[in-house]
Amino acid sequence: MDDLLQEMIEPPVSKNDVARRRRLLSTVAILGLAGVGVTSLTTSALFTDRDGVEGNTFTTGTINLGAAAGDWSIAAGNMAPGDTVYSTLTIDNDGSLQLGYAASYLVASDPDGLADFLSIGVRAGTCAGPAANPTGPGTGTVLAATGVNLAAGETPLFGVAGSTVDVAAGDRILDAGESETLCVAVTLDTGAGDALQGKTAELTLTFDSEQTANNTAP
User: What are the tens digits of pLDDT across the range 145-173?
Assistant: First the structure.
């Protein structure tokens, strides 16, 4: 009798009810975990921003050395032994930085050996006499004076072409936008013989420059 009353008050749970309860508990657990996941995602999503300030513009200077006719050449024609020909050459600093420059010569063409009897001299300043046909070296400082018999290959006249600027070694200094004139003289030695009549030799002057700022010899 007691068992019958107990079954009427609390009827036995069927297998279907047990399965339904398990599914319900699983669903609640899954929803709970999903809720935790959403919470975590929500709290870790941060709004970000970035801002900057405009910087300064850094500009490098320029080195631009110019000669009146680029690489300068002079033909040794119509010269008698002992003659000297003169030419005024203008050197310009067309850049924005102070520079130092050096000069060298090259016997560009000498099929008959005339350069063996030539010498070169360079002075600062203009040559004496008419600009179109100068007749003397002027009174400027002597920058270079070679001996007779010009060397083969490129040979320094004054200064040192390279990565440093050294006034003591003869480098010339030009401020930005400035220029200077040089008087170049080429002399045919008195020892030139009859075999050199009507012969020519071509000499080329080349100028190399470097900035002076932060670029001096140790």
Answer: 999 999 888 899 999 887 778 888 898 99
CATH topology of domain 65-211: Immunoglobulin-like (2.60.40)
Closest C-alpha to 109, from 158, 76, 144:
76
Regions in the chain scoring below 70 on pLDDT? 1-63, 67-77, 215-218
Residues 6+ positions from 114 with CB-CB distance below 8 Å = 76, 188, 192, 196, 199, 200, 201
CB 98 within 8 A of CB 176: yes
CA of residue 84 relative to chain centroid, distance = 39
| pLDDT tens per residue across span 109-132 | 888 898 899 999 999 999 999 887
For the chain, which residues make up each domain, given as ranges?
65-211
β partners of residue 144: 122
**Closest listed residue to residue 166, CA positions, set 125, 106, 124, 208:** 208
